[in-house]
Write a structure and sequence with these properties.
globular
Length: 125
Amino acid sequence: MAGKHLEEKFKSERLRMVEEQIADRGVRDPKTLEAMRTVRRHLFVNPSHIYSAYEDRPLPIGEGQTISQPYIVALMTEALKLRGARTFWKSEPAAVMRLRFCRKSAQRWSRSNGSKSSLRCRAKT
């Protein structure tokens, strides 16, 4: 039950993050906003920062890399004006962006070779 409660807490924080940090600052693209509401940012930060995952700041994700603050991620995603293009990257620091691009372009993601550093977007089937 604790796991479900924690996921609900993170979902609530994610929705608040989108409204207060992203939409209130002018990001309007519905697909970008939906992707930001959906991707579970807390899964991509170091475990010691899990409770800070939805704060308005960059956070470490390991290997000396950081995940950008949510507003910057949304702003960059919206600026790309993605409309269904397939997307593929191989670097771990871009993991959250990859997931958001997949969500925004109506595609699904999967680990292409089982490693932490290889995620692929594929057309939904």
